């Protein structure tokens, strides 16, 4: 599904060599309630944001948070109804990495959230040239599954999800 | 002698002739020549002729590795002993050697050959027209690409070859014209290792090169380094690039200028500034930091480079700061500026008349003021650091500047909600106060005093939490600023006065008293380095604290309840740390002076030296006094157990006897424990000998009588524990006997659990007694020794023990294992592992937790051993990840994460099982558990998957 973009950017010239950098939000402070064995903590926006903010950008040695591709205000979760919606914003409107970034976010959520959740990952409206096509690809479960069968693509996604050394 | 000489000559000539013979004899001939090359009696001239013969007759590279090595040895031997003769050969020797080593492939031989080339160059042999050939014959190995075969008996590492080749290549400026293009080519390649090696070699070259060698290559070198720093994804490449730039700049700064020559440093720095300065104006963009780092690396090389760069960059950054108004942008700019200020500080002081930075002082000060006044914490923090750097520049800031700075720091210490800036402001006050004590005394201390004082009037009108917080901050600020002897003389009386005032107040609460004590403790710590203020503190604070405590312990019915505050355990603990810190650094004479007053106070009730000493009744804590008085033994402990070892304690026999008696014959556990600790502390420091043995014997009698069924069992146990600790720390021979006694108690129905926990006390560092700061006798390896001595017995005891007390043994063992450095543990692992695995099934969550925390580092450090038990580990960890205790679930998930360090083939059969099982903790009710589950599951997904 992202055959065209999967090879680019791993060598050669960067599409956007000097992007804007945003500050990382610190670790979430641990509250007394969280340390209390009895109190249940519901899954909230910040928790979902913490899952995806440290995903590496495929091009830069930077996280999606530092590039402002993901923001906490664009993460919506409803624990009771088991739904998650994440909007992400490519750094430039023609970013060829958009699908790959979306796929990484999706895979991270699939691996990290309980199965009961229904997740929706899409581009922030109006921020990408082929927004509609990318959203459609990301919403299609079979295409996502097929993409992960492609070992080259899986490699790139895994690199984005690996902890930074 | 002559005959011997003759023989040697003949032998040599014989061998030389044999070199022309059939190739089968050559190895043996070479062996013979090598033996001769080591001989002292070889007449002059023969070395040359042997070498000539070898160069002429032998095609070295068609010999075996061993024989080639022999040739190199012959050359090395001659070079060592007959340098002059060899040099007479001139460039022919060099040429001959080039032919010998041309095409060498064996790493063992290469190490020797590189060494020979290095000697050729460094010992100044004539290279003649063969410089380029010599370069070619060595540089063809660059960058070294060698992986030692597995089980290599020769132990040659890639790093060895890299370093010896680098030594050759970077040994002479004569290689420069050939080497620099090669380095440039390799830096531009795709290989990470080639980039690193080239940059490091360039770095090494700069030590011998001058302007002449570098001149033509500077633009290309700069382009390559810039590219690596701007676009790299590897931090190592970035670091090496910056280091190389630093060396280049240092090299250019070092060279002496000819009158008419162009200043290369200047033009080099200009090109760097040209390429970087516009990035500095975009504080949001990615390249801003790499640019700043490049400039700082270049500027850090010399005073001249620093001047050149900062004179452009500082005004630029000052202007940019004012142009950008967002806090985050300003923070980036100020942080860069801070880097340059630090460089200025490093180079600025070298023989100059004017104070560096003084031309920028006004704008810098106003900029720092802006930063400190900004609402953003991050900007404030950088501002505080900048202020500290400016303040550290002697003579830069005027008194007015400092007063303004103090205003800011004062405001930040109090008005800011953010505790980060508050702490940073206090720390900065402390640093600056050491440099400018008079300004702080005149400007800050009175305001803090007033702050403490205004508290009182508000106290009457009712107090809010904010008021309390403010007073706590004020106490913190007072202690933070007490970094200079003259300031301590102002602040200490204030703090003590305040303590007196607080504990008598109507609404006094223990938190406040503890806060004062904490401040006193900090001040005491800051006084330790200077003997004079140390004594001042001790002399002023200790009698005052003791007087207040004695006063509180008086059986006075009229005394209002808050007066007893000082006897609460927490408050006493806080006072203990003050007294102990105030006593550790006393000189022996002064300590003796003080101990002669304090011990009689406790033994005979001699209160004459206390600052307020009219008490309604006698103070005799060891006699039939109230339990309040007995509690103060803790303060005695704080004092006598912190004194240096060589201070003699008066009436020691009597004191020890009293302590023993108190430790076992009182029903208040606090006083007993204090007495036991005090006894143990003195015991630990007492020199070996008859007196020590007597003390020990008495203690053991006391313990044994106490442990027999009766009301004082737990007191006797506490005494045993502390005495054991005192002896274990100093390797006393009796300690093993006491440890055995302690282990025996593990199966005791009543004391078993306490004995198990006692092992953690034995291993841990104690905050108030028997610690290094208090000069206790502590051998470094005591934990390891205790482990070796006690673990076999613990394991044996575990197997022999009845089922109901087994957990005690496991717990004791867990405590010992937990405290041990992991490298010590690794060799013991095979014998202990089965026990640890058994402990995982133990139902006690404390045992589970400590076992998990013990296994987790082992999984990381010894994956091979652990992979034998993979089946058990996976099952048990997954079970524990559903434990009712949150801490156990978290630890189990961390272990499951650590499992991924095991060899992948071992794990793959379990991958799906683990991933499926971890779906459950992903929905755990606790967020902290979910977080660990996410990390662990993510790591398991990556196992055996491409790209991980």
Q: What attributes does this structure have?
A:
heterodimer; A: alpha+beta; GMP Synthetase, Chain A, domain 3; three-stranded mixed beta sheet; 37% helix; B: globular
How do the strands and helices of this protein lay out in sequence?
The complex is a heterodimer of chains A (165) and B (948).
Chain A: H1 3-6, H2 32-35, H3 45-53, E1 75-78, E2 83-88, H4 98-112, E3 118-123, H5 131-139, H6 141-149, H7 151-161
Chain B: H1 2-18, H2 26-37, H3 46-57, H4 65-81, H5 83-88, H6 91-101, H7 107-122, H8 131-139, H9 158-169, H10 176-187, H11 192-205, H12 211-214, H13 218-231, H14 235-254, H15 264-280, H16 288-299, H17 303-323, H18 327-348, H19 361-373, H20 377-392, H21 399-415, H22 419-435, H23 437-443, H24 445-461, H25 465-481, H26 485-504, H27 510-527, H28 531-553, H29 569-584, H30 588-604, H31 627-631, H32 633-640, H33 652-664, H34 669-685, H35 690-707, H36 713-729, H37 735-744, H38 752-763, H39 782-800, H40 806-818, H41 822-825, H42 829-840, H43 845-861, H44 863-867, H45 870-880, H46 886-899, H47 904-907, H48 911-918, H49 927-942
Helix pairs in contact in B: 1-2, 1-3, 2-4, 3-6, 4-7, 7-9, 9-11, 10-11, 11-14, 13-14, 14-16, 15-16, 15-17, 16-17, 16-18, 17-18, 18-20, 19-20, 19-21, 20-22, 21-22, 22-23, 22-25, 24-25, 25-27, 26-27, 26-28, 27-29, 28-29, 29-32, 30-32, 32-34, 33-34, 33-35, 34-36, 35-36, 36-37, 36-38, 37-39, 38-40, ...
Give an overview of the whole structure:
The complex is a heterodimer of chains A (165) and B (948). Chain A is of the alpha+beta class and 165 residues long. In chain A, 37% of the residues lie in helices and 10% in strands. Chain A contains 7 helices and 3 strands. In chain A, helix 4 links the parallel strand 2 and strand 3. Chain A is globular, with a radius of gyration of 16 Å. The two termini of chain A are 29 Å apart. Chain B is mainly alpha-helical. Chain B has a domain at 839-947. Helix content of chain B is 71%, strand content 0%. Chain B is built from 49 helices and no strands. The chains are: A alpha+beta (165), B mainly alpha (948). Chain A binds chain B through residues 11, 14, 17-23, 30, 34-35, 37, 40-41, 43, 47, 50-51, 60-62, 108, 111-116, 151-152, 154-159, 161-162, and chain B through 190, 230-233, 279, 282, 284-288, 328, 378, 885-886, 919, 922-923, 925-928, 930-931, 934, 937-938, 941-942, 945-948.
